[in-house]
Design goal:
The protein has 390 residues and is mainly alpha-helical. It has 16 helices and three strands. It has a three-stranded mixed sheet, sandwiched between helices. The chain is elongated and about 70 Å long. The N and C termini lie far apart (67 Å). The model is unreliable at 1-13 and 134-184 (pLDDT under 50).
Length: 390
């Protein structure tokens, strides 16, 4: 595998990394890399057999096709994709070619171009061999911290006029070494961003999508903070322990890079929608279970845009019913009815409507629940619903 040396995060107008020829069938070199691959190979074996992995060949094939569209052939040939049921927004790629995509990411991307940007970013970590470089850097930093600790302990033991200054110096060295681990990770993220943008430039995708995605990530986080009565995160600051650049900084330099490219492209939204249509109801249900009312309500609104579809209306009804304030139950009933107007065959919408009505002491609840049982007589909760009707 050819190694790309990406430039550090550059000022506006600086060029993107050049994509080199790609040599496939890369094998680990040296003791450190072979040991690292041995560990991730074992992790992949465990993940392959995990019940958390979504078993859907069509979805895996679609995601592999997106990677190929993003980074090009033959780069994508070495990628093995595992879709994991996890409502969080995340993806990662191991040094042996294992790409893990969490379902929370699939729910949040608006179009295929955004998905390609994220998967390209993860592939950039793989192509730059960041796992190995990061492993060596962390080991070096922790060695420095350990020796500094020995120096401090010796100063305490033997005392003397310089003991206090020795301890303070050792502590400063430890803090600097510890901070360098996270600073190095942030620099790797910037390099992966730059290489991902280079992939997008060479692909058929619109490169402006990457910055758009991070803008919505910030807005969703703000909505979550409001719901939990927390302060909004300062997206222009980097915490000491942060492993990624500040989100606002990231969105800004990605947008500047896209503008400098002056390149348009496709967003592939129709392909993404077709690939996710069978999975979106389940992913929405997983999101609602996070107990994040404001963040989820924001996300549903973003997914809807100007058109609330039946599945999003149903999900919003479930969200409001799960919070369960009297006003929420009234709103939930309205969302369920709107979903049924678009999709009269949605038995679960009658179930949700009936349960919301029952908690509001609405006499129409029994009729709604009877409709549900008539449409799904073998439902797993049929006995419980029948008891509620009685």
């Amino acid at each position: 595998m050819a190694i790309v040396v990406a430039a550090p995060l550059a000022a506006k107008g600086d060029p993107l990394p050049t994509l080199p020829p790609y040599a496939g069938a890369y094998q680990p070199q040296g003791m450190d890399e072979r040991g690292l691959w041995m560990m991730v190979d074992e992790d992949e074996r465990r993940l392959r057999d995990s019940k958390a992995v979504v078993s859907d060949p069509k979805l895996q094939s679609y995601l592999h096709d997106v990677v190929c569209r993003a980074v090009g052939a033959p780069r994508c040939d070495s990628v093995r994709i595992y879709v994991v049921r996890n409502a969080a927004f995340n993806a990662s790629m191991a040094p042996n070619g294992m790409l893990v995509v969490q379902t929370g990411l699939l729910l949040r991307v608006r179009n295929e171009a955004e998905l390609a940007a994220v998967l390209g970013h993860e592939f950039a970590h793989f192509e730059l061999r960041h796992s190995l470089v990061g492993f060596k850097q962390k080991r070096s930093a922790t060695d420095v911290m350990a020796w500094a600790g020995v120096a401090a302990a010796g100063a305490y033991t033997y005392g003397g006029t310089g003991a206090y200054n020795t301890v303070r110096t050792a502590q400063s060295v430890q803090n600097a070494a510890f901070g360098s681990i996270f600073a190095f990770s942030r620099e790797q993220e910037r390099q992966a961003d730059l290489l991902s943008m280079a992939y997008l430039k060479a692909s058929s995708y619109d490169p402006r999508c990457f910055a758009d995605l991070w803008g919505r990530v910030m807005d969703e986080a703000d909505a979550t903070a409001r719901g939990r009565r927390q302060r909004s995160t300062r997206y222009d600051r980097v915490a000491f322990f942060a492993t990624h650049p500040a989100t606002l900084e990231r969105a800004t330099y990605l947008r500047e890079l896209a503008i400098a490219m002056d390149k348009s492209g496709e967003d592939g939204r129709a392909r993404l929608d077709a690939a996710m249509v069978a999975w979106r109801p389940q992913l929405l249900a997983d999101q609602i279970k996070l107990n994040d009312f404001e963040g989820t309500d924001y996300l549903l609104g973003e997914l809807a845009g100007a058109q609330w579809t039946a599945d999003l209306l149903f999900a919003r009804g479930e969200l409001y019913r799960s919070r369960g304030n009297p006003r929420d139950l009234v709103s939930a009933a309205g969302f369920y009815r709107a979903a049924l107007e678009q999709e009269p065959s949605n038995a679960d919408a009658y179930r949700g409507l009936g349960l919301a009505q029952m908690r509001s002491r609405d006499p129409a609840a029994a009729d709604s629940l009877r409709r549900y049982l008539a449409m799904k007589p073998n439902a797993v909760d049929s006995a419980m619903i029948s008891t509620l009707i009685q």
